[in-house]
Every structure is written in structure tokens, then in C-alpha cells.
Amino acid sequence: MLNPSFERREFFHLHFLRHLSQRLAGRNYAVKGGMCLRLFHRSPRLSEDMDLDVTAQVGFKTLQKAVDAILHSGSFAGSFIPQGILRLEVTKPKQTETTQRWKVALFLSENVALPAKIEFSRRQETMRPISGIPHAELLHQHQMVPFAAQFYDAQSMVAQKIQALASPSRQAARDLFDVHHLLFTLAVNKEEIPRSVPAETLRRAAEKVTQFSFQHFKGQVLPFLSESMITLYHDATFFEQMKSDVEQMLLRMAP
User: Fold this and answer.
1) Could you tell me if 186 and 234 are in contact, meaning their C-beta atoms sit under 8 angstroms apart?
2) Are 96 and 220 in a shared domain?
3) I need a surface site. Which of 107, 111, 163, 220 has the fewest CB within 10 A?
């Protein structure tokens, strides 16, 4: 069972993505990060925010106009009332050529709101997203008709997540959880990974894995899992096994 606050955010992001996919049809964009894993790669980890990549093909003004038109549409806002979201409050705290960010408050009452964020990065000259339909179980859960959107495939996501895990400036236990999901639940092609991720990066990622404690995992990941998953991972034994599995696999892939 999902936490109601996450369920509402997830419905919001799915609904937004459906509208965005129509407005950006024929243009290059891709859902990435935790939301990509959740919507398209069956991750049990919930997410509050949606991150996407776009190329220069999707210009600053084009994107701003498209997103503003969606978020400020009366019919769009009205579709959330049955979910208990009475109104949306939208701000644009960052709008540059490389990063365009919108923050949306989902008001459940006059004084209670759930925060959500939508962020686009325009840092890549080229990208190779694929097109597909969000996971059928999620669409059924949110009573939403199927729609197609662009996202990164599992092979691209595992390379991105390993690089994030290896980053010296980042200490996110969710990267460990996500890499484990990609390597062992989705069973990506492990022979392909060393072709896109340098051996030194694989070794740094393996070293980072050893630095995470169960307290990190309890604080950064458990609150973003469903009740059944929290019960499974509440025991540190499962966490330590996950660490060991990911560390050994990363080291095995590093020549």
C-alpha cells in the first residue's frame, strides 16, 4: 500500500507527463532518475520529483510555454479534485538555458500542501531515449489510460546510476538501492556496462557502497518504499546483503 501523499504526487506526475508527451511530440526529451525507474522500470522506490533531459531542439521559450500552459490550465488543475487536491500553486524558481525548474504545491486544504518539483536539464547535445508506456500496474492503480512518453532504457539508467553512485560529491543511499534494482531485478546486460562506464568509476562506486550504513538506508530510502517493502528491509540483514551483492558485481565488472 502506498503512502497517500506519495500516491497523490505520483498521480500528479503521471498526469503531467501525459500532457507533456502530447505537447513535445516529435521533440527530444527523456524522463530520468528515480521517476524513470518508478514509472518505466518497475522500481518500488517512490519519488517526490520528476527530472527530465531535453536537448537544444527543445528551446527555452518552447519548453517554458509548454509547461506553463499545462500547469496553469484550469482543466488540468480540476482533474486532481477527485484525488483530494483542491488547487495547485506554481512557481518557477530557476529558469536558465541549462536548467528549467518548476515547483508545484498540491493543496489538500487551505493550509496543507504537498511539494512537488519538475526539473529539465539541457546539458546534452544528443540523447537516445526510447518511447514506451508507463508500467501497466501503475496506470491501473491510478485509473489512467495508457499513453506513450520518452525515457531512458534500463541499460542507460544503470550507467547513469553507477556514475552517480561513484560521484565524490554525492552521498545518496538511493543510488545503491537503484543500482541493485537494475542489476538484479531487471537483470540488465552486465557485459555491456564496462563499455559505457570506465573501470575506475566502477571501482569508485564499489568503494562508495561500503560507506553506507543501515542508518543511511533507514533515513534516505525506507520512507520512500511501500509498507510491504519497508517490512522486508526493516532488518539490517537484507541491507547488508544488498551492499555485498552490488559491491561484488561492480568489482567483477571492472577489468
Assistant:
1) no
2) no
3) 111
Domain that holds residue 203: 154-253
Q: Using one digit for the tens of pLDDT, what is the confidence trace for 163-204?
A: 999 999 999 999 999 999 999 999 799 999 999 999 999 999
Which of 118, 151, 184 marks a domain boundary?
151
Cβ-based neighbour number of residue 77 at 10 Å? 17
From start to end of the chain, where are the E strands?
A: 29-32, 49-54, 87-95, 99-107, 113-121, 130-132, 149-151
Contacts 24+ apart (CB under 8 A), 78-83: 79/15, 80/8, 80/11, 80/12, 80/15, 80/106, 83/8, 83/11
Residue 136: CB atoms within 10 A of its CB come to 9
C-alpha cell read off for 55: 536537448
